[in-house]
Amino acid sequence: MDTDNQTWVKEFILLGLSSDWDTQVSLFVLFLIMYLVTVLGNFLIALLIRLDSRLHTPMYFFLTNLSLVDVSYATSIVPQMLAHFLAEHKAIPFVSCAAQLFFSLGLGGIEFVLLAVMAYDRYVAVCDPLRYSVIMHGGLCTKLAITSWVSGSLNSLMQTIITFQLPMCANKYIDHISCEILAVVRLACVDTSSNEIAIMVSSIVLLMTPFCLVLLSYIQIISTILKIQSREGRKKAFHTCASHLTVVVLCYGMTIFTYIQPRSSPSVLQEKLISVFYAILMPVLNPMIYSIRNKEVKGAWQKLLGQLSGLTSKLAT
């Protein structure tokens, strides 16, 4: 292959979701609202956990990390997508594209490991409640959180370096909403079999390993719940895990479907919709799920709103 044809491209063009102007404006308004709700919702959850001493537990420490990951993940994709909805030239510089891939891929990996860590936390809470505070001490929680962030970041760094070392030739049109790894790999003008294998292997390690740990945790949790004699006890134990289980099902499902078999991956449109789901919907849903399904969080909200109402009344008088 001619060396001149293997030069690095200076920028990429993201084709996005639609080329119709009216559709783009409508999507801009919708996604902007959802992004603002994402930032506000996750910020309020983190603030609530900070202010209410009853929520100073391992579960809510990990939930704070999850909120930070969700906001960061959405921020790595949505602002650029919003700008492109209103731009005629939907370009993203080479370095920005690499940075976007690194952060979005890394934060996605961090979330999967965090969900496995949270599953372990729920396993200890349900299966060994008397020793919960001894096992899930502050030092272990910090180490587990750091492990989540480091493992996701290292995997992302490796994948980003490997991907952007591929010769893109004159290919610069990315048929996606962002610099997603499979979409970028398709631009290469060389055989990408090794890259696809690397993606699959890293997906197995960073996705399927945490998923299997989550599965094992919930097998033990369900087994323990079924042994509880009282109906009220089983109900209480189930509600302890309900929010986390809901997020796990939503988060792991589509990613397993997308990345485990790159060669038989879904259509480009499906990939775009899946990316929208993770960048827009999941960060919005997570704080709602933990607020609606969790009695402790609802109680904390009621307490905080009561305090604010009382303070407002005093100021008014």
UniProtKB/TrEMBL annotation:
Q: What Gene Ontology cellular-component terms does the record carry?
A: plasma membrane
Q: Where is the G-protein coupled receptors family 1 profile domain?
A: 41-290
Origin: domain of life: Eukaryota
**Which segments cross the bilayer?**
25-48, 60-78, 98-120, 132-150, 197-219, 240-261, 273-292
Q: Topology with regard to the membrane?
A: Multi-pass membrane protein
Keyword Transmembrane among record annotations = yes
**GO MF annotation, one:** G protein-coupled receptor activity
Q: Where in the cell is it found?
A: Cell membrane
Q: Which UniProt keywords apply?
A: Cell membrane, G-protein coupled receptor, Membrane, Olfaction, Receptor, Sensory transduction, Transducer, Transmembrane, Transmembrane helix
Q: Does the keyword Magnesium apply?
A: no
Record-stated family: Belongs to the G-protein coupled receptor 1 family.
Q: What does this protein do?
A: Putative odorant or sperm cell receptor.
What's the protein called, per UniProt?
Olfactory receptor
